[in-house]
Amino acid sequence: MYDFRSHFGSRASRRHPWLLTHNFRSLPESGSFAKMAGGCAIFCTIMSGVAVPLLLFFGLLCLNESPMIEIPVHMKPDAGKGCFAAAFLYAGTFLYAYSKMQAAAEKVRRLELELQCVKDSIKVGADASSPSRGDDSSAELRKVQVVVAAAGSTFDRQLKDVRKQVNELREEVELGLRGRSLGSLEGVDRPRVDSDARSETSDAPSAAGSAISAEDSTEFKKMRAVVGAAAKNFTMQQCYTT
Length: 242
Fold this sequence. Notes:
The chain has five helices and no strands. By secondary structure, the chain is an all-alpha fold.
C-alpha cells in the first residue's frame, strides 16, 4: 500500500479517499515507474533550467529600471525583488521535489532487490525440496516393499505350518484307522462257542464303526479349527499390512 497521506496531507486525503485505498499493485510495474520518475525529473530539470534564468533576467532588468520592462518606474524595484524570490523559490521547490523523487526511486530499487532475493530464495528452496520429495517417496516405497515381503514370508511360513499340521493329523487318523481295523478283524476271527457269542461278535464291527466315525469327526473338527485359526491369522496380517 502506497502511503499518499505523507505526501498529499490530510486535506487531499479527505478530498480524494481513493488515495488511501489505492493499491500499489495497480500502479505501473517497477521498471515503468522508474522510467516515469526519470521522465518527470528530466521535465522538471528542463523547466527549472528555463524558468529560473528567465526570472533572474527579468529581475535584473527591473532592478536596473530598464525601458524594456513596461511597468511604472516605482514598481520596478519590487518587481525585481519578486522575480528573484520566485526564481529562488522555484529552484528550492525543484531541488526538494528532486530529492524526494530520488529517495522514492531508491526505495523502489531496494524493494526490487528484496523481491528478487525472495524469489531466488523461494526458487532455491523449491529446487532443494524436490530431491527430498523424491527421496521420501522412494523411502516410502522401500518401506511398503519391506512390509509386503515380510507379510509374504509370514504367510508362507504359516502355510507351511498348516500343511505340516494337516499331514500330521492325516497320519494320526490313518494310524488310528489301521489299528482299529486290525482289532476288529481279530475280534471277528476269534472262535465263538455259542450263538450268543456269535451275535456279540457280529455286533462288534458296527460298534467299532461307530467308534471310528466319532473319532474321525473329532479329528476332522480339530483339522477344521486349525485351518480356521490359520486363515484368521492370515486375514489379520493382511489387514495390518494394508
